[in-house]
Amino acid sequence: MAKTGGTATVVKNAGSHYLLSELPAWEPFPAVLRGKVRLQKSSSTNPVAVGDRVRYEDGVITEILPRSNYLIRKSTNLSRQAHVIAANLDQAVIVVSLFFPEIKLPFLDRILVTCEVYKIPAVIVLNKVDLYREDAPEAVETFMQIYEGAGYRVIQTSCKTGEGIDALRDACKGRLSLFSGESGVGKSSVIKAIDPSLDPKIGQISLAHLQGKHTTSLYEMYKFSDGYLIDSPGLRGFGLVDLEKEEIAKYFPEMLRVADDCRFVPCTHTHEPGCAVKAAVETGEISSERYNSYLGMLEDDGKFRQ
Ligand code: GDP
Ligand code: ZN
User: Fold this and answer.
1) Lowest mean pLDDT among 112-126, 171-185, 212-226, 259-273
2) Which one has a higher pLDDT value, 233 or 129?
3) Which of 218, 238, 262, 301 has the highest Cβ tally under 10 A?
4) Is there an atom of ligand 1 within 6 Å of 160 CB?
């Protein structure tokens, strides 16, 4: 018997209504949005997003509780209107593979910058390690040095051997994780390895009986092993924000750590004498790959928006 009111989490936007669940219980039920609440946040095209904590009463959402973070996507480059993709994320799990498809580090770095901007802790999953452990062990080593060196957690996984799957499952325990990854990296395989009841490739039917109509929503939440998952359809939707040139370095954690020691403030870490970031790149404390991504973002100023 459904309760008539309380606090719940939005697990799906099903067109005319939402599905809520009182997490950690996984018992989604429908609720609608009252016009008054709907009008409040006019700067975004959707006032309520998956992950939002809301108060509800008699099947009506009455209040949206403050968000710890949220991820937005602009409807177009020029538009001021933003679409909130998801809210209250505990972490972003970014699945990558070194080859097949070949990784593009600047692309990964842009995703990581986006996570920093939105204050969403990022975990990198280096999948398909079975393929390159033998053939290209130095490539794995280099990748680990770059990203662990920058301060990120990297979990090596293989869906073939099962390596790292327990560690990743553990990292997802009790958390709401946004999974993203370029097509072909094995994101679906990783999700399925962690929780065989989920198969992103064949789509989900678990909540279908509550939807009324066949409404496909790009972002919805699933119960995932001992946590919750939002599967992001590719990396594009999870693109980049508008950043001023001077801001970009703040979102490279390893640069932020040393930038206080730059002689000039502000410092673009490009040509200035006494630049602590450049010095750290020279000693190898900051990887040249990450630094090059930073330079690329500076050059692309304004072009890497979503
Ligand atoms: P997605 O597009 O990121 O969801 O990728 P899929 O899960 O569909 O996987 C893409 C391809 O990579 C498939 O042929 C998988 O069998 C393969 N694959 C996935 N994970 C691994 C892995 O850990 N090792 C190897 N060798 N192949 C994998
Ligand atoms: Zn500097």
Assistant:
1) 212-226
2) 129
3) 238
4) yes
Q: Is the CB of 158 under 6 A from ligand 1?
A: yes
Angle at 85 between CA 296 and CA 146, to 5 degrees: 35
Which ligand 1 atom is at minimum distance from the Cα of 182?
3
Ligand 1: residue of 159, 161, 187, 238 to mutate (most ligand atoms within 8 A of CB) is 159
Detail the DSSP E strand segments found in the chain. Answer: 5-14, 17-21, 29-33, 53-57, 60-64, 70-74, 82-87, 91-96, 122-126, 153-156, 176-181, 221-224, 227-231
Class of domain 245-298: mainly alpha
Q: What is the pLDDT of residue 151?
A: 97
Q: Report pLDDT for 15.
A: 75
How far is CA 187 from each of CA 60, 78, 244, 277, rounded to the nearest angstrom?
A: 35, 31, 32, 34
Distance 159 CA to ligand 1 centre (A): 7
pLDDT band at residue 212, thresholds of 50, 70 and 90? very low
CATH number of 5-66: 2.40.50.140
State the pTM of this model. Answer: 0.90
CATH 3.50.50.60 fits 86-231, yes or no: no
Angle in degrees, CA 291, 168, 116, rounded to 5 = 35
186 pocket-lining for ligand 1 (C-beta < 6 Å): yes
Please, are residues 97 and 128 in contact by the beta-carbon 8 Å criterion?
A: yes
